[in-house]
Design a protein that fits this description.
CATH class of one domain in chain B: Mainly Alpha
Number of helices of chain B: 3
Largest interface: A-B, 80 and 68 residues
Number of strands of chain C: 2
Structural class of chain B: mainly alpha
Strand content of chain B: under 5%
Number of helices of chain C: 25
Structural class of chain C: mainly alpha
Shape of chain C: globular
Chains: A mainly alpha, B mainly alpha, C mainly alpha
Radius of gyration of chain C: 30 Å
Radius of gyration of chain B: 18 Å
Helix content of chain B: over 70%
Oligomer: heterotrimer
Mean pLDDT of chain C: 85
Order of helices and strands of chain B: HHH
Low-confidence stretches of chain B: none
Chain lengths: ~170, ~110, ~625
């Protein structure tokens, strides 16, 4: 039972932070909300037995990528967004439509999947680093190497794009 | 008051993922600052990650974790390049609004 | 095998060479090919006919040469066959012989004209089609030649295509011809249906096998439709209106096509289909009545015309009427006899008129001629030979053929005989009126008349000899295997009535135009309305124009052109284009350039997919 309550707490934090991300006008507030979402999700990963992923999420995602975002926001001196005149459709129809969409998706998910055991903390043992590591270097070696090249390309691209033009 | 289940029903994870994904779409469509749009994309990627982990738990296989790991790697690379592009756009057009980067219209 | 195919194909080769290369060939070569091909065709005709025994009493049965199968469709089997029997022999000699003479004449006449090679190319093409028509052994091949000569007539009438009146005349000829051709086509369809074949041998064999008194309705229908075709081609009422206007073409064209050969195609066709016509007395009576009516009407118009070529054009229409009378009263061979003699003297009249026109450097109006007897004596002599021939003065050719026709008319229906006699009187009158106005009296023009060169009066001399002596070629006797002669005796003296009429016409013309020229003018002013009606050709052209031509043109313009073509068809075609354009316009708005719009579309698509999945789920 505790599992459910814990899950609900983290889920609510994640959703509230996500809503905050969408509604805030200054990008820095949105970035910080995103960090909150990532943290809550990391905890949920832990509940699902994904220790490695949870740590990777916190270190890489929340720690590096979001810091990069915040650096760029600071560099560009982005101010608050101007308030835009909203289309009436969007103002009054967007929310109900979204809710409807989520409802439909939830319904579909419920109906399509057979009942299965729920999530318990510590119920899965495969998410530990040894397991992940073994898989990475045995079965998924090729994608692993390819992603390393991908990162190299990304580095090159970012350097080329962002440097000063030679006058 | 419905009885609180023993363990978290599996479908709840997927519904949470769906909610986060929808919020990401909403932010992507309705925000004008390009950095906020980017962050909504990251939100969407996170939602998908959650979905992967949940399924990996269900089928008792670690492959979902691997995939999620790769998603994170790609998200990192994409964030790096994308932010570099945003920097370039800002240098050229002095604006961070998506609507003003519209020279493809007729 | 007499290689009959050479006969039409030689002129066709001449057409091809002159048509494709004539622009670059020197005149001597053009002449060689054009005249040479027809001359060799003529010699070949003589050779083939003598080999078949045509000149020595042979050729009683048709000699057929089969070349290849043209159309094979179900029960219909049409092949390209040429056949020669006595009728064909007569026509072949006329067409190639007179054709050769006219080609030689045209070398001189067209010497200064531009488009020289084109003229001879068309002339050769015409010979090809005419010979195909004459040699054909089935209705479809005859129709090919029929249409082809119509086409060449159009091309040659409109030869001076820069002149509006020439092209209009060419159009008129072709269109009026087509109306007749429509009737002819219907006749061919009916023949195909009832006789299950278009081959002459089969069709006429079946027709002859019917009992003599049998006259089924469909036979009459076929005969009448054939008659419609013949009236178009041979310029009878009501489709004769193109022939006078056809004088817009060069004079050799008028001589060859509109006097000697093409216009006789209708007569030939009816003579060839005699077995069908003999089973339909109604149709034969139509033929005779139309013939005599046309003969009378055309002669009356010719009385008052002032253009020398127009006089002879109406004369042609009138003489064709005589031929139809011959056919309609049952004397088919008399009709063909008149075809031959008419070819001689009418070609001579036209070519002689051409010689006069050439002498006067283009003048055609009789009122500006006169006193040319001493200045162009050779032309005058040959023209007077033609004049006495056409007037029916014995012992010249016209007398024998005209007499044969009128005798047969007397036996058929005496009133036709008397009208024919009066028409003969008018014929002699107007021909000699033209000749006297042209050659006697004082010269009323401004040119310097000069005699034509030998290349022009040589053929004229030959034709004059034929006009005078051609009557002794006893065609009715020659054609007896095909058209049995009737044995009824005639009242004595009937044969002399047309002669008297002819001589009377000549005398009256002499009185009016040589002795006292004031008489015709006073008569003309006394009977002004009559004169006006005759001079304006009974206003037939105007009647046709207002009753038929104008409504059709207006209807086409307003209904078919504006409404159907420009409105519906163009509208549909352009509409397709406009629709595509419009859809493109709509789709263009999708490309707004705003990234968020594109993202919106992506999301919309994704939502659609999810909803579809949900619906499928609910349906399960």
């Amino acid at each position: 039972m505790e599992h459910v309550i814990l899950f609900l707490i983290f889920a609510v934090i994640a959703v509230v932070a996500a809503i905050n991300l969408v509604l805030q006008s200054h990008p820095i507030s949105s970035a910080l909300s995103l960090v909150g979402v990532m943290g809550a999700l990391a905890l949920i990963y832990l509940q699902l037995g994904g220790e490695f992923i949870a740590s990777a999420q916190l270190i890489v995602y929340a720690g590096a990528i979001m810091v990069l975002f915040i650096f760029v926001i600071m560099l560009l001196n982005a101010g608050t967004e101007r308030k835009m005149k909203r289309n009436l459709w969007v103002k009054y129809g967007g929310l109900p439509l979204m809710a409807l969409f989520i409802g439909v998706v939830a319904y579909v998910i419920e109906r399509m999947l057979p009942p299965s055991p729920g999530g318990l903390f510590g119920n899965m043992t495969h998410g530990n680093p040894q397991e992940i590591g073994r898989l990475l270097f045995q079965q998924y070696l090729l994608p692993f190497e390819v992603t390393s090249i991908l990162i190299l390309i990304a580095i090159l691209g970012a350097v080329v794009l962002a440097r000063k033009e030679i006058e | 008051m419905p009885p609180i289940p023993e363990s978290v029903p599996f479908t709840w994870y997927l519904i949470l993922s769906a909610i986060l994904f929808t919020l990401g779409i909403a932010g992507f469509l309705f925000r004008r600052n390009v950095i906020t749009v980017f962050m909504s994309i990251e939100l969407m990627l996170n939602a998908v990650n959650l979905s992967f982990i949940a399924f990996s738990y269900k089928f008792k296989q670690p492959d979902g974790h691997i995939f999620s790991f790769f998603v994170m790697v790609v998200a990192a690379a994409e964030a790096a390049v994308g932010l570099a592009i945003i920097l370039t756009i800002f240098k050229n057009r002095q604006t961070l609004e998506i609507d003003e980067v519209s020279s493809l219209k007729d | 095998m007499q290689q009959l195919w050479l006969i039409p194909l030689l002129p066709l080769a001449g057409f091809a060479i002159n048509g494709f290369f004539g622009r670059r060939l020197p005149k001597i070569w053009i002449n060689a090919f054009a005249v040479g091909s027809v001359l060799i065709a003529f010699l070949w005709v003589i050779k083939a006919l003598s080999a078949l025994g045509a000149f020595s009493g042979g050729l009683e049965e048709a000699h057929v040469e089969h070349y290849f199968t043209w159309i094979q469709s179900g029960a219909l089997n049409i092949s390209v066959d040429f056949a020669v029997d006595r009728l064909t022999a007569v026509m072949l000699m006329i067409v190639t012989g007179i054709g050769t003479l006219i080609h030689i004449y045209a070398v001189g006449y067209m010497d200064h004209e531009s488009g020289y090679y084109r003229f001879f190319a068309y002339l050769n093409l015409f010979m090809f089609f005419m010979l195909t028509l004459v040699l054909a052994n089935n209705f479809l091949l005859l129709f090919v030649g029929w249409e082809g000569v119509g086409l060449c007539s159009y091309l040659l009438i409109g030869f001076y295509f820069l002149e509006n009146f020439a092209t209009t005349a060419g159009n008129k000829a072709f269109i009026v011809n087509r109306i007749g051709d429509f009737g002819f086509s219907l006749a061919i369809f009916l023949i195909g249906i009832h006789f299950s074949s278009l081959d002459f041998g089969k069709v006429f064999g079946q027709a002859k096998a019917l009992p003599v008194e049998a006259s089924p309705g469909w036979m009459t229908a076929i005969a009448l439709l054939l008659l419609v075709g013949a009236t178009g081609k041979s310029a009878q009422i009501p489709l004769y209106v193109w022939l006078p206007d056809a004088m817009a073409g060069p004079t050799p064209v008028s001589a060859l096509i509109h006097a000697a050969t093409m216009v006789t195609a209708g007569v030939y066709m009816i003579a060839r289909s005699s077995s069908i016509f003999l089973h339909s007395p109604l149709a034969l009576s139509f033929v005779a009545v139309i013939g005599i009516a046309t003969a009378f009407m055309a002669a009356s118009i010719g009385l008052v015309q002032n253009d020398i070529k127009k006089v002879f054009a109406y004369s042609t229409v009138s003489q064709l009427g005589y031929m139809f009378v011959g056919l309609g009263t049952g004397a088919f061979s008399a009709g063909i006899f008149h075809v031959m003699t008419h070819a001689f003297f009418k070609a001579l009249l036209f070519l002689g008129a051409g010689s006069v026109i050439h002498a006067l450097s283009g003048e055609q109006d009789l009122r500006h001629m006169g006193g040319l007897l001493k200045k162009i004596p050779i032309t005058a002599t040959v023209l007077f030979c033609a004049g006495v021939a056409i007037a029916g003065v014995p012992p010249f050719s016209g007398h024998y053929s005209k007499d044969a026709i009128l005798e047969s008319a007397y036996q058929y229906a005496p009133w036709i005989f008397w009208v024919g006699v009066f028409t003969a009187f008018m014929t002699a009158f107007y021909v000699f009126r033209a000749l006297f106005l042209c050659f006697f009296g004082e010269y009323r023009g401004h040119h310097h008349p000069h005699e034509s060169p030998f290349i022009m009066w040589g053929p004229l001399a030959v034709l004059a000899a034929l006009s005078l002596g051609g009557g002794f070629i006893n065609i009715p006797k020659y054609l007896e295997p095909l058209f049995p002669a009737s044995e009824t005796p005639l009242p004595a003296g009937i044969a002399w009535v047309p002669v008297a009429a002819g001589l009377g016409g000549i005398a009256l013309a002499y009185l009016f135009y040589v002795v006292s020229p004031a008489i015709p003018e006073s008569i003309g002013s006394m009977f002004k309305p009559v004169y006006n009606t005759l001079y304006n050709k009974y206003f037939v052209d105007e009647a046709y124009a207002s009753a038929v031509v104008d409504p059709i043109v207006d209807g086409s313009r307003s209904l078919l052109w504006r409404t159907v073509d420009a409105g519906a068809i163009d509208g549909a075609v352009n509409g397709v284009g406009k629709t595509a354009s419009g859809i493109g316009e709509l789709l263009r708005r999708l490309q707004s350039g705003y990234i968020r719009d594109y993202a919106g579309w992506v999301v919309a698509g994704a939502i659609l997919v999810v909803v579809a999945m949900g619906i499928m789920e609910v349906a399960k």
